[in-house]
Design brief:
The protein is α/β, with parallel strands linked by helices. 32% of the residues lie in helices and 21% in strands. It has a single domain, classed as Nucleotidyltransferase, domain 5, CATH 3.30.420. The protein has a 5-stranded mixed beta sheet with strand order 3-2-1-4-5, sandwiched between helices.
C-alpha cells in the first residue's frame, strides 16, 4: 500500500502542505522503500469544481490507501472515505518525517 502526502514541493525533504487543495504537489510514497512520485496539483492556484473527484481518481490510480495531510475540507474527506482511502490529519514536518512517523505508528498498532 502506498501513502500520499500533501507537499509544498516535489521532494521528501519539503514540508507537508497545510491543506489538500492548495498544496504544490502530492507525493505518493512507498513507505517500505521510500520511493516516491510527485503528482502536481493543478488546482493549487485556482479553485474549480471537480478538484476533489480529480484527486480521488489520481490517488486510486496510484494505489494509495492512506493520505497524510495537514488539513482537509469536509467534501474531500467524504469523497476519500467513500473511495476507501483513510485520512490522517494534522501532519507537520517534512514529508519524509511524516512518512517515518506513520510507519512507526502503524508498526506499533500492528504489534498490539
Amino acid at each position: 500500500m502506498r501513502v500520499a502526502v500533501t507537499s509544498m514541493g516535489d521532494t521528501l525533504e519539503q514540508p507537508v502542505g497545510p491543506g489538500a487543495g492548495k498544496c504544490h504537489s502530492w507525493l505518493v510514497v512507498d513507505p517500505v522503500t521510500m520511493e516516491y512520485e510527485a503528482i502536481r496539483n493543478p488546482f493549487a492556484t485556482v479553485s474549480g469544481p471537480g478538484a476533489g473527484k480529480f484527486l480521488v481518481a489520481q490517488l486510486k490510480e496510484y494505489g494509495v490507501g492512506v493520505v497524510l495531510v495537514g488539513g482537509f475540507g469536509c467534501n474531500d474527506l467524504k469523497l476519500l472515505s467513500h473511495a476507501g482511502i483513510r485520512v490522517l490529519l494534522g501532519m507537520t514536518g517534512s514529508v519524509r518525517e511524516t512518512v517515518e512517523k506513520f510507519k512507526r505508528s502503524a508498526a506499533a498498532f500492528h504489534g498490539l
